[in-house]
Write a structure and sequence with these properties.
The structure holds 2 protein chains of 2 kinds. Chain A is α+β, with helices and mostly antiparallel strands. Chain A folds into 3 domains: 148 residues, FAD/NAD(P)-binding domain (3-Layer(bba) Sandwich), CATH 3.50.50.60; 153 residues, 2-Layer Sandwich (Guanine Nucleotide Dissociation Inhibitor, domain 2); 100 residues, Orthogonal Bundle (Guanine Nucleotide Dissociation Inhibitor, domain 1). Chain A has 12 helices and 20 strands. In chain A, α1 runs parallel beside α9 and α1 packs across α12. The longest helix of chain A is centred in the middle third of the chain and has 18 residues. Chain A is globular, with a radius of gyration of 23 Å. The two termini of chain A are 18 Å apart. Chain B is α/β, with parallel strands linked by helices. Chain B has one domain: P-loop containing nucleotide triphosphate hydrolases (Rossmann fold). Chain B contains 6 helices and 7 strands. Chain B has a 6-stranded mixed β-sheet with strand order 2-3-1-4-5-6, with helices on both faces. In chain B, α4 links the parallel β5 and β6. The longest helix of chain B is centred in the middle third of the chain and has 17 residues. Chain B starts with 12 loop residues before the first strand and ends in a 16-residue tail after the last strand. Classes of the chains: A alpha+beta, B alpha/beta. At the A-B interface, α3, β6, α9 and β10 of A face α2 and β7 of B. β6 of chain A pairs antiparallel with β7 of chain B.
């Protein structure tokens, strides 16, 4: 085989979204990148798979059966493995626009953003208010509370971090969010939907944390501004599924000279004086295993997802996730073709929220008449994970198929990579959007290059690395 | 010359995603640059590293705007992403008439397209580097029958029998006979041309034939292919079916790689 260079600036292992964004950015910046995945497809844990692959992945198949056959053409399905959506005004959107990767993808709005109040048969579902005006019309609050919520949201809109006149007399950099809520005399239920369905905190840990008020306010503003951008919800979603995102950034990397090898195993990582110096790898042949190609190349740095370096990764928690196929929209959600629905932890006696992310044929991820809903939360005990997600399943109603594996370990690196020049990413966490993923991209970029990542104007002043 | 230099006629215009496939060094990019540059002479070179190149092709009843996607080298280690084929309405599968292995590779790509791409995709098989053969200057007749065929089904692509006359290999660099590629193209229902990106022979004809072969229906129902440049009507707020155009934020720089 031709064209594997004797040396690369960076070898990237795994084609998840984090790795592909970094590969793309590094190539645009003129680095010589070799990007490898052991799988024969792009996306790793952030891939979208067809329904046959999903059945096989989760083992919902008896020998001799082909249960996917009743769901139409398998390739009409693009089912996400990660339940996440893009914030319209979020950082991933910003990176997509700055890198022009938007040209390879098409986005559609998510039709609605909902929150549950109460539990069991008495549970109600309501639209999350997107601004002060909507707060006044919301069924989530009583009349007087609506006015207080309106005042609070107006204040959030006018808030300026460096203008103490806009701080309502609070010592905003040191106070807790509880003090802010108290200032506006907000009721517990209001705090709940603001903190969980607007600031999108998955637990109540933020409330009593000194100094967390500014971040909370910024999160609410991100929600409100994202909402204001297109109108229906703060979220957008790529047609054909989230798996298109890593592919788009991989193409960016390739256009700027990045080399791609799928279906390739890393046999050995080579070191010199404790620092990475190269890799030995084998590119497998799809048809003929004896036709594998072994090669060795030098590199100064490796960026990898945690699965390539188990010894450099630690588990920080477990995500519970069930992918559900429905043939109806979710009750009490205005028959939305797509949505996020948050069940705040306090409403169902938990410590972590339950999230439902649903998309449908409107996003070219399944045939007409079907809906794909992913229910997820952070595991709180070793008991039956099914029970922990029960409140979410109740919300969905009748479920045609349910795909649920064992709890999913969430990894993060044990060190910052400075000593070995091997930089490990984090797993996709339980949050409902990609903001923490792009935080990880920025963090990895800083660790790997010693510079801050600036994406604005990234492509304007760059030359193609090699042609 | 099939391109229109100006958009003076109010003909309907549709975007068509066209993907390039073929072994390295068969001249994929050269073909596109030849095609695109004809409309681009006075201006600067198209930006290398662009998302895709665009070029208009004016037909009697409509204008086709090709969005031409290069493989960006991702075919080298069989690592093209499904996104590459997604919604492609046309494909140019290129081989080198002086290199038999490149035709084998081209057949592999045709099979891959038939497996992965949209069912109605128009595939053109192109034998490039005709200038290295003795037929260099006279090859345009290969495509004579296809030229001007309107919305013809792709099966009936003209590769007239008179082409066989060219098959005599007489010490030139040709290693793939026209007859072999013709009969393969007929079996698979492909358009077929022999071209020279160097001299320009048949290059415009390939794209014109593809434009003619794209069914009108797929242009009307489909919204083209286009992420991005193909869509101009999307505003900052939602449209009816709630598609969103993220590109509007940097509309000022959106001309990159656009030849029109």
């Amino acid at each position: 085989m031709d064209e594997i260079a004797p040396e690369y600036d960076v070898v990237v292992l795994g084609t998840g979204l984090t790795e592909c964004v970094l590969s793309g950015v590094l190539s645009v910046k003129g680095n010589k990148v070799l990007h490898i995945d052991r799988n024969d497809h792009y996306g790793g844990e952030a891939a979208s798979v067809n329904i046959e692959a999903l059945f096989k992945k989760y083992g919902n198949v008896q020998p001799g059966e082909e249960p996917w056959k009743k769901y139409g053409r398998v390739n009409d399905w693009n089912i996400d493995l990660v339940p996440k959506l893009l914030m319209s005004n979020g950082e991933l959107t910003n990176i997509l626009v700055s890198t022009d990767v938007t040209r390879y993808l098409e986005f559609k709005q998510i039709a609605g953003s909902y929150v549950q109040q109460g539990k069991g048969p008495k549970a109600t579902v309501a639209k999350v208010p997107s601004d002060a005006g909507e707060a006044l019309r919301s069924s989530l609050m009583g009349m007087f509370e609506k006015r207080r919520a309106k005042k609070f949201l107006e204040w959030v809109g006018e808030f300026k971090e460096d203008d103490s006149a806009s701080h309502q007399g609070l010592n905003i950099h040191n106070c807790t969010m509880k003090e802010v809520y108290d200032k506006f005399s907000l009721e517990d239920n209001t705090r709940d939907f603001i903190g969980h369905s607007m600031a999108l905190y998955p637990s109540d840990g933020y409330i009593n944390q000194p100094g967390a008020a500014v971040e909370t306010i910024n999160r609410i503003r991100l929600y409100v501004n994202s909402m204001a951008r297109y109108g229906k919800s703060p979220y957008i979603y790529p047609l054909y599924g989230l798996g298109e995102l890593p592919q788009g950034f991989a193409r960016l990397s390739a256009i700027y000279g990045g080399t791609y090898m799928l279906n390739t195993d890393i046999d050995e990582v080579l070191y010199e004086n404790g620092k990475v110096s190269g890799i030995k790898a084998t590119m497998k042949d799809r048809e003929d295993q004896s036709d594998a190609m072994k090669f060795e190349t030098k590199t100064k740095k490796i960026i990898a997802d945690p699965s390539y370096f188990p010894s450099k990764s630690k588990v920080t928690g477990y995500l519970l996730k069930a992918i559900c196929i429905l043939n109806h929209p979710i009750d009490k959600t205005d028959s939305s073709d797509s949505l996020q629905l948050i069940i705040p932890q306090s409403q169902v006696g938990r410590k972590h929220d339950i999230y439902i992310a649903m998309v449908s044929s409107a996003h070219n991820v399944c045939p007409k008449g079907y809906y794909i809903a992913i229910v997820s939360t952070i595991a709180e005990n070793d008991a039956n994970p099914h029970l922990e997600l029960e409140a979410g399943f109740e919300r969905l109603g009748k479920i045609e198929e349910k795909f649920m594996g064992p709890p999913i370990p969430l990894y993060e690196p044990t060190d910052n990579g400075e000593e070995s020049n091997i930089f490990i990413s984090k797993s996709y966490d339980s949050t409902s959007h990609f903001e923490t993923t792009t935080d990880d991209v920025r963090d990895l970029y800083r660790r790997a290059t010693g510079e801050e990542l600036k994406v604005e104007g990234l492509r304007e002043d760059q030359q193609l690395a090699a042609e | 010359m099939s391109e229109s230099a100006s958009a003076n006629a109010p003909k309907p215009s549709s975007s068509v995603k066209l993907v390039l496939l073929g072994e390295a060094a068969v001249g994929k990019s050269s073909l596109v640059l030849r095609f695109v540059n004809n409309d681009f002479q006075e201006n600067k070179e198209p930006t290398i590293g662009a998302a895709f190149l665009t070029q208009k092709c004016s037909l009697p009843t409509r204008t086709i705007k090709f969005e031409i996607w290069d493989t960006a080298g991702q075919e080298r280690f069989a690592s093209l992403a499904p996104m590459y084929y997604r919604n492609a309405q046309a494909a140019l599968v290129v081989y080198d008439v002086t290199k038999p292995s490149s035709l084998t590779k081209a057949k592999h790509w045709v099979a891959e397209l038939q497996r992965q791409a949209s069912p109605g995709i128009v595939i053109a098989l192109v034998g490039n580097k005709l200038d290295l053969t003795n037929d260099g200057g006279e090859a345009s007749e290969v495509a004579a029958e296809t030229d001007g065929a309107d919305s013809a089904a792709q099966e009936e692509q003209g590769t007239g029998e008179e082409d066989e006359a060219q098959d005599a290999v007489s010490g030139d660099a040709r290693k793939v006979s026209t007859r072999e590629a013709t009969s393969y193209s007929e079996e698979e229902g492909l358009l077929f041309f022999e071209t020279s990106a160097k001299t320009g022979t048949n290059v415009v004809e390939v794209f014109t034939a593809i434009a003619n072969a794209i069914p009108e229906s797929s242009l009307k129902t489909g919204r083209g292919t286009g992420a991005g440049t193909g869509q101009t009507s999307l505003g900052a707020r939602s449209t009816e079916d709630s598609r969103v155009n993220l590109g509007d934020r940097n509309a000022a720089t959106a001309k990159e790689g656009c030849a029109c």
